[in-house]
């Protein structure tokens, strides 16, 4: 099997699964319990918090555990909106955000918040001056993803942070779900206030995530009824998921340092070979994108047909993001970049992990060429 759908989810490390089993069997007490068994479990949670904070170069008390990226993004955006509504009701985000940001903003717009969606250029990046001109006296939040989940475009987070440092009442949230472990981001240096991550994107387990909240910043909780996570995120902690998230992040950071160059070489090989095929348009700009995502369009074909044809060869890719892949509408992100409807319909996403190899990339290109030849024969095109 060749698995090129790592932006949807990654394969958990063996060490992660072993640790999950051990913690689940031996440390099942509730970390909020008063007895010493609960105390031991609470210690495990706090050790994981420290490990994650060290890897992210932030303080222990700035890490809040969540169920994943969607919850982290919702908590950051709605929690800010509810906490600072008296200060203003204007939120700025982009046209290429993950649905967990876009839909959260759409919900807030129905509650009276004003949302500005920044356009992007053909590479998928926002313009700093466009952002600056969109800021108003009542702007309370700017939310921009670090790495786009469909295209791989990297946004200028440090530049945005520098700009927003001139507006101390505006809170800066970054969706770092696709960037973590692939594209380094120093949260304090980039002047980020809130940042979401999700464990299953870096070989941890589904159902675990974290939200960075800058020390001293308060946001409104979305859940009521408990006092966990400093009253910001109530609910009994997913201890096994939290502990294994710390392990997965450490292992991923080690692999990034060891295999980051290999991943970039594989991506560039894929892009150069895809560009040689006349029927294909590569939508990802390698000079402004992350090392693990390639998006291309097979003109005149449907992306889902190519996905299933590759699946028959035991090769797994996707069309858009996993959260949108079963929707029939054309990708909002591709539209925002100026991609035509025909090109968007034929879009396919390849997303790599550090376990993928150049041999797999070569097999993929060979298989794809055969598949496209057959498909174009079926539709009566000689491309």
UniProtKB/TrEMBL annotation:
Keywords: Pyridoxal phosphate. InterPro entries: Aminotrans_V_dom, Cysteine_dSase, PyrdxlP-dep_Trfase, PyrdxlP-dep_Trfase_major, PyrdxlP-dep_Trfase_small. The keyword Nucleotide-binding does not apply. Residues 2-362 form the Aminotransferase class V domain. Its cofactor is pyridoxal 5'-phosphate. NCBIfam families: PRK02948.1. This is Cysteine desulfurase. It comes from Heyndrickxia vini.
């Amino acid at each position: 099997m060749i698995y090129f759908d790592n932006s949807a989810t990654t394969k958990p490390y063996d060490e992660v699964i072993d640790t999950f089993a051990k913690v689940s069997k031996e440390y099942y007490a509730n970390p909020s319990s008063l007895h010493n068994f609960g105390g031991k479990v609470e210690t495990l949670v706090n050790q994981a918090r420290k490990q994650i904070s060290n890897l992210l170069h932030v303080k222990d008390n700035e890490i809040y555990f969540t169920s994943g990226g969607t919850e982290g993004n919702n908590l950051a955006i709605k929690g800010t909106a509810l906490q600072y509504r008296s200060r203003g009701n204007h939120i700025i985000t982009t046209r290429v955000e993950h649905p967990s940001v876009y839909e959260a903003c759409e919900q807030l717009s129905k509650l009276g918040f004003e949302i500005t969606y920044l356009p992007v250029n053909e590479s998928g990046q926002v313009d700093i001056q466009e952002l600056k001109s969109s800021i108003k006296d009542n702007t309370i939040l700017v939310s921009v993803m670090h790495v786009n989940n469909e295209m791989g475009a990297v946004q200028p987070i440090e530049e945005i942070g520098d700009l927003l440092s001139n507006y101390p009442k505006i809170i800066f949230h970054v969706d770092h779900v696709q960037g973590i472990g692939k594209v380094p981001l120093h949260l304090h240096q980039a002047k980020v206030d809130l940042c979401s991550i999700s464990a299953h994107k870096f070989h941890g387990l589904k159902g675990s995530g974290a939200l960075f909240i800058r020390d001293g910043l308060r946001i409104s909780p979305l859940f009521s009824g408990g006092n966990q996570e400093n009253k910001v995120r109530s609910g009994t902690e997913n201890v096994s998921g939290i502990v294994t998230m710390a392990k997965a992040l450490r292992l991923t950071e080690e692999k990034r340092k060891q295999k980051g160059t290999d991943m970039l070489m594989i991506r560039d090989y894929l892009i150069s070979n895809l560009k040689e095929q006349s029927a294909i348009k590569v939508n990802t700009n390698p000079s402004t994108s992350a090392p693990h995502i390639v998006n291309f369009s097979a003109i005149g074909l449907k992306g889902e047909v190519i996905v299933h044809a590759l699946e028959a060869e035991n090769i797994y890719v996707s069309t858009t993001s996993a959260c949108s892949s079963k929707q029939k509408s054309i990708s909002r992100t591709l539209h925002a970049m100026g991609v035509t409807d025909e090109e968007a319909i034929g879009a396919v996403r390849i997303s790599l992990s550090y376990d993928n190899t150049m041999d797999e990339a070569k097999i993929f290109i060979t298989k794809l060429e055969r598949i496209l030849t057959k498909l174009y024969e079926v539709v009566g095109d000689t491309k």
